[in-house]
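Re: folding output
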Amino acid sequence: MAGTMDEPHPTASPNPSPSPSPTPEEAPSGSVTEYLFFFLGLLPTLISAVRIYLIAHGDRSTMLELLRTLNVTALMLDTFIRFIGVIGMAVTAFLFLRLRRLPPTTIRPAWLRRIVSAHRRTALWLLAGTFTIFLSSAYEEEFFDADNKLSWTPDDLLRIYAWLLVIYVVRALAILTRRRYLAYRAERTEEPTEQAPASPARNPWLPWRGVATYTLLPVAVLMTWSLLKHTDDRMWLPSQVITIDHNPAAFTDQQIRRDADFPYLNGRDMDGHFSFVGYVLDDNGTSQTILSSNGVLVTVGEDAITSHEACQYEPTYDVRADTPFVDRLLNHDDRWHPAPTCEDLLRKVLAR
C-alpha cells in the first residue's frame, strides 16, 4: 500500500506543446476568395466608376446623363471582355500556384477542398489546360505594345514585370543597406544587450511569398492603366461617325476644333451636313442623345440624322497586331477589317 502511495502519478503538462504549424513557405499568404473577390469584383467596379468620370471629363451634367442612360451590362462586359484572355490567365495561374504550394494537410475540411485534394493532379492538369485556352484569347499588344517601344509606362505585361523586377532589386538592396547600418551601430555601441537572440533574418533576395504579386497584380495594373489612361479604351459603347443635316447649337467652333484625336476633321462638308465622332447614349424613337468624342453632349431628332457608321476609335488599329492569337491561327486573311478607323471614315465622309 505504501509503495502504491509513493508512486508518482502522471500529471498533465501545464503548457502542452502546440501542434506544429506550417512553415512560412507552406502557409498560404491570404485567402483565395479574398484575392479573387478583389480582382474579379471590386477592381472592375472601381474601374467602371472611374471610366464614367473620365469620359465625362469631370462635368457634372454629362456624368448625370451618362448615369441616366447607363447600360450597366455593356459597361461591365467591356471592362472584362477586352482583357478576358489575360484575366483568365492570371486567375488560373494564381490557382495553379496556390494549389502547388498548399500541402494537403493544411487544406480545411470543406467539401470543395476535399475534392480538390483528392484529385490534385487532375485539378492541376485542368488548370494548365484552361490557362492555355485563355492564352490563345489574349492579344500580342497586352504582352508587348510595339506602338510604344520607348515608353516606360505600364502599357503591357513586359514593362509591368520589368517594374516589378526593379522594385524587387531596390527593396532587397535597401534591406541589406539597413541591416549593415544597424550592424555597424551595434558594433560601435559598447553597452551590452541582454535581449534574446533573434531568429535569423530572411534573405532579402528570396522571391516574394505572395503568389498574387506575380499573377494577379500585373494584370490589375494593365487593366487599370489601359482603361483609364488611353482615351480610345475609356468608352464602353461603339464609336460612330454621325452625320446630321445642321450644326447643333451645342457645338461652337472652338468645341469642334478641340478634339485632340481628330484635329480639324469634325465639321461641315460641302453640302452643309455636320459630321463628328460620337457615341449614341439613348434612342427613344424620336430623338437620340449623343456624346461626341470631345465631350459635347447633344440631343438630335431622328429626322435630322443623315447617317451614322460604326468605326474603330483606335487610330493605330492593325488587324494583324490587334487580334487575339486564336484568330491569327484560324483566320489567315489579314485584309479582313471589322470597321475602318474613325479618322479614315471621317475623312471620307467630309470629302463627299
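--- second protein (sequence, then structure) ---
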Amino acid sequence: MTPAVAAPQWRIGTDRRRAARTALAAGADLLHLDYGGAHRGTPLGEPAALREAAAIAGDIPVPVLAVNHVNDLGLAEERGTANPAALALLERAQDCALRLGAGVLHVPGFRRSTPATAGLRAGTADALRTLCERAASAGLVLAYESPLGHRDLLALARRVDHPALRLVLDTGNLRDAGEDPLAFAREAGAAGLLLPDLHVKDPAAGPAAPGSAFAELPALLARSAARSVLVENDYRGAGAARLPEDIRLCRAAAEPTRPEDPR
C-alpha cells in the first residue's frame, strides 16, 4: 500500500487555517497540527483555537498532534523526575488530540527537553512512563524523538517499558546525529517500537543535492511498512513553494518499482 503524505502545520505557519489550505493545495493527504504556545501560535487549550482546529480536522485528517512547546519547558528535571509543568501541558494536549480525532500524541525531546545527562534521562523515562499510562487509557499512541543516538534512544524506551510508546524516525535529525536512518528503522522495528509515520527532511547542514532527502525513502518504506510520511522541511515564507515539490518527490519515492518490460 502506498503511504499517505502528511504536511506539518508548524513548518508552514502558526495560522492553522491558512496552513491547512496550503497543505491541501500542495496535495497533502494529512496534516499534523501543533498544540501551540509561546511563539508557536494560540494554544489549543483555548476553546476558540480548539474549535477552529476541530473544523480543520473536518477538511483534512489530523492523525497526529505535536506538542513542540514542551521543548521550551523541559520534559524532565535534573534530579531524575518529570517536570510537573510539562506533564500538565501534555495532559491538556492529550484532551485536545482526542477532540481532534488524532491517534498519536507527538512529544519531542529537543532544546530544554534534550535528555543530555543521566538525571535528565531518568526524568525523561519517568515522564514518558506517566504519559504512556495516560495515553493508553485514552487509546492513544505516544510518539517520542530526541537527538540521542539510536542505541541510547532504544535503551531509554526499554527503561520506559510501556506498549503505548513508539519512536519517531526522522531522517534529518538522525543524519544530524551521525546516525543511519535505515539502521534505526531496522533496530526500532525489531523491538516493536517504530512509529509507522516516518519524517523526512534535509539534515541541518543541508542536502547534498535537491531532493536527496528522499533518496533513501524507498529502502526505509520497505523496511518499516510505514502508513504515512511527513515531509518536514521549512515551508515558511520563501520556502512555501517547496512543499508541493517535496510532496511530489515523496510520492515518487514511494511508488512501487515496476519490473522492466522485457520486450
